[in-house]
Every structure is written in structure tokens, then in C-alpha cells.
Amino acid sequence: MSFTADPAFEAASVFTADWPLCQVRFQDDARFPWLILLPRVPGAVELEDLSPEQRALLSEEIVRAGALVRELGALREAPVDKLNVAALGNVTAQLHIHVVGRRRDDPLWPDPVWGRPGAVPCAPETRDPALAHIAAF
């Protein structure tokens, strides 16, 4: 069984890179710098589906993604005040971790971003430099 991303991820995010464990996707929502990490482990739904070594690597990749989200915020001249990290999986069961940069002046602060309508697709002049930065990180 080989790894494939759930098709639901194609609708709102863009593949940007493969890290040692995870596929890295850029959430196409101009309101937030937002990455999604998908561990490339076929059939993984819960953290317990990863080996101890994979869980340790996932933790390191979450920290790396947080640093990258902060850089994406800085590129937008909108420094991140707080990182939100979550593995919800209520809509898409495939194991994935959201790493979202939040600001006290963002449109949903202090509420969670999960399942909230109003996503605003990134303009190419914002999205393309962000994708290039992620690929080079």
C-alpha cells in the first residue's frame, strides 16, 4: 500500500515539498500563513499509527513547520503572534497536522480557524513567493 494524499486536500491546499516524514502542503487561505503536514505512512489515521521513531520525527517537523509559518508571516509583513497546531481529522480521517500562524488582528481571533467559512484564496503574487520559500526551506 503506497501513500496518497486524500483528495480533499487538493481542493484547498497546494503540495509544496516532501520532508523526511511528511508531505508539506500550503493551505490556500490568504487570512493565515498555514501549512498542513501529512505523514507519508499509508493508512495512518491516529498518532498511534506511527512508530515511536516516526512520532519523534513528526514532532521535529511540526517545530520546523512552525518556524516556516513564522517566516511566511514575516514575508507578508504580518508577524505571527501565536502558532496553532492541531491534528483534528474529523472531516478528513487521514492523519494530518495543521500549523497555523495567528495574529491578534486576524479576522477570527481569538476563535479557532477549524471549520470556519470565509477562506480567501491567495493572490498569485502572494502565493507564488510563499510556495518558493517553502520549497527552499
TrEMBL record:
Entry-linked Gene3D superfamilies: HIT-like
Protein name as catalogued: HIT domain-containing protein
Domain HIT: 10-104
Pfam hit, one: HIT
